[in-house]
Amino acid sequence: MNENIEKIKFHLQQLRSEIELHNYRYYVLDNPVIPDAEYDKLFRELQQFEQDYPQLITADSPTQRVGAAPLKAFAQVTHRVPMLSLNNAFDDAEVEAFDRRVREGLAVDCIEYNAEPKFDGLAVSLRYENGLFKTGATRGDGYTGEDITLNLKTIRSIPLKLPLNDPPAILEVRGEVLMLKKDFLRLNQQQLVKGEKEFANPRNAAAGSLRQLDPNITASRRLAFFAYGIGDAQDTRMPKTTHSDLMAYLSSLHFPIAKESQVVMGLKGLLEYYQTIAAKRESLPYDIDGVVYKVNVIAQQEQLGFVSRAPRFAIAHKFPAQEAVTKLLDIDVQVGRTGALTPVARLQPVFVGGVTVTNATLHNADEIERKDVRIGDTVIVRRAGDVIPEVVSVVVEKRPPDARLFAMPSNCPVCGAKAVRLPDEAVSRCTGGLFCPAQRKQAILHFASRRAMDIDGLGEKLVDQLVDQAIVRTPADLYRLGIAALANLERMADKSANNIVKAIEASKHTTLARFIYALGIRNVGEATAKDLAAHFGNLDRLMAADIEELQQIADIGPVVAQSIVDFFAEAHNCEAVEQLRASGVHWDEHAGRPAAVYLPLQGKTFVLTGALPHMSRDEAKEKIEAQGGKVSGSVSSKTDYVVVGAEPGSKYDKAVSLGITILDEDGLLKLLDHS
Ligand code: IVH
CA–CA separation, 263 vs 113, rounded Å? Predict the structure, then answer.
């Protein structure tokens, strides 16, 4: 019996090591070697044995990561080696001063440093006794922390047992608990679904998850751990030469360490490292708030020692704060190149993300309402990387009694044209089009583009200069440009000026479709412009059309029709059109298609398959199209009828599976007759 128990004990040990190895491969190396189902099988086997032999359950069993009962309070833990903090450097000059102090303190010309990310999480200490994870604690005041062992055990990347046959008597691993950005987003999504409060950032989410008296809540959140140093240790194997060797040792014990750590030389190496990491910051899987520089040689670290509560041999080079609190003085409305109206907060100047910010975007009216932003509010402004600063939220407690609500204007603040908001859009747009100075450059570039008026050589740089110097205000002004005006511009020789004038001249003879497209009417692309030209045949009829008439054209729905009506309702746009015609822009016109002929199969799509008994495929197509229907080559959920002849192909099967109406030749003829 005893012998049998010994055998089971041995088997369980093997099973636990195997499971922990898979944990390590999955959570630390991100490189699993077995499918999840296989892992689950091993885990269930272990659970079954432990259920049958509860006396054989050990504290380091992977089954013990979860399921512990909630605590009443956290116990206190005294750190045998205090968990100190780091001094900060906020700019290059402060890093330079640090390097100078280190060089002078050691009387060495150039220092070898280990540079690493500064994780934006929570410092913890993991104490291993004889290879087993015994106690895990928060930093607390640096001398006494809280015992959060049960919560830390739920973090899969923290080893419960060191993978060594003769483990050290004591090893305290120090590092940071954090939540990966992707897990943070997932958690907030879940919070939203559950109607619970979202976390402001991954750090708060990690802190909220770790300081739970119920470890089952911690277990339900995905937390990560990264080691960056050691505390108390009685370990003969531990490297004592450099910090980088020490980290490699911790990595060999299966602790996750930062991939981005690097050994660098001297001040130049430090500052280069800072720039490299700053550039990578957004793409890292976790949040960092700076980088940490440590003198790499441990003997040198010891020589430098500590001053009050921080080491002399290390410093944190912090990134500029990304969020700041300031006052919202007013809200202006800016008009973008495409006519979008954006509300912009005018702020009391505030230093954030390394620059002084005076404006921040409020995106659109819905966002202002959602965040309940009012003029006079105290707001939190965020500036991350290269993105435009934005107002994140309002400090409602600080709202003054005279704070004012804001309403989006109904007219463009730049040109005065009506601003409209389409039902499916978040932004309002200026309908001033060609007339609105804010949209002028974009409008002129579009006007001149290849598929529009095709003015060769009129590129962005030239348009910038022409508009900035008020030489060109509307596309019609292009036709008044002389060689002299162009040749005076930067990087413009007589010859190229000549070519551009020629290209402008040549563009005068165009087609109605190109001209309509060139006007830059919202939602009117090239294909719609062609449809409009074919339907109306001349511009005056298009300009006079109302929504109903426009909607009778195939493929033109209410949104496009409204855009067209809005465009020509602006007198400025009509004026711009007249100016263009007056400057000689012309095209061939025709009477257009007869208006408003009722076509009974308008909007219906047919697919033909197999040979019909009395009609060729082309004849059938002609008949369908004559009544306004369309014939398409493939069956989809948008198909209305499939016409089936002899020996139909797979189109027939697809039509049956999609439940589409099937007609034979007779059925088609009846439909054509009756419609
Ligand atoms: S070393 C003796 N390395 O920064 C100092 N700390 O301000 C030991 N931190 O409480 C700290 N990343 O939570 C070190 N790579 C890193 C770090 C790091 C983040 C945090 C840690 C510590 C605080 C010090």
Answer: 6
Give the model's confidence band at 454: pLDDT under 50 very low, under 70 low, under 90 confident, else very high: very high
Among candidate residues 85, 289, 23, 88, the one with its CA nearest the CA of residue 178: 289
> What's the Cα-to-Cα distance from 254 to each of 157, 160, 202, 265, 616, rounded to whole Å?
8, 10, 24, 28, 74
Secondary-structure class of domain 323-398 per CATH: mainly beta
Known catalytic residue at 441: no
231 Cα: distance to centroid of ligand 1 (angstroms): 12
For ligand 1, residues with CB inside 6 Å are 84-86, 116, 118-119, 123, 139, 176, 228-229, 292, 311, 314, 316
Looking at residue 603, what is its pLDDT? Answer: 78
State the sign of the Cα–Cα–Cα–Cα dihedral 133, 139, 145, 147.
Answer: negative
Q: Are the C-beta atoms of residues 339 and 433 closer than 8 Å to each other?
A: yes
CATH placement of domain 605-674: 3.40.50.10190
pLDDT in tens, 254-300: 999 999 999 999 999 999 999 999 999 989 999 999 999 999 999 99
* Ligand 1 centroid distance, CA of 98 (Å): 17
pLDDT at 595 over 60: no
Residue ranges covered by each domain of the chain: 2-65, 88-318, 323-398, 437-587, 605-674
Pocket test of ligand 1: the residue of 79, 113, 116, 119 to mutate, having most ligand atoms within 8 Å of its CB, is 119
pLDDT value at residue 351: 86
Count of residues for the chain? 675
Q: Residue 295 Cα, ligand 1 centroid: separation in angstroms?
A: 14
pTM for the whole thing? 0.58
Strands (E), 267-354: 288-295, 306-307, 310-311, 314-318, 323-335, 340-352
Per-residue confidence at 632, pLDDT binned at 50, 70, 90? confident
Q: What local confidence, expressed as pLDDT, does residue 320 receive?
A: 83
CA distances from 507 to 268, 510, 514, 571, 586 (A): 57, 6, 10, 25, 9
Mean predicted confidence (pLDDT) in 604-608: 90
Q: pLDDT of 521-548, one tens digit each? A: 988 988 899 999 989 999 999 999 999 9
**Domain at 88-318: CATH architecture:** 2-Layer Sandwich (3.30)
Query: Rounded to the nearest whole angstrom, what is the distance from the C-alpha of residue 252 to the centroid of ligand 1?
Result: 21
Higher pLDDT, 483 or 224: 224
Q: State the Cα–Cα distance between residues 300 and 293, nearest whole angstrom.
A: 14
Shortest-distance Cα residue to atom 23 of ligand 1: 85
Classify domain 437-587 by CATH number: 1.10.150.20
What is the per-residue pLDDT across 183-209, written as a single tens digit (0 to 9) for each?
999 998 898 888 887 787 899 899 999
Q: Which of 528, 550, 541, 539 is nearest to 576 (CA)?
A: 539
Alpha carbon distance 112, 242 (integer Å): 10
Distance CA 622, CA 151 (A): 74
Backbone angles phi, psi at 346, to 5 degrees: -90, 125
pLDDT in tens, 73-118: 999 999 999 999 999 998 999 999 999 999 999 999 999 999 999 9
Catalytic residue among 41, 72, 118, 371: 118
Other Cβ atoms closer than 10 A to 341: 24
What are the tokens at 553? 């054209």
Q: Which CATH architecture is the domain 2-65 placed in?
A: Orthogonal Bundle (1.10)
Q: Tell me how far apart the alpha carbons of residues 256 and 52 are, in angstroms, rounded to a whole number.
A: 34
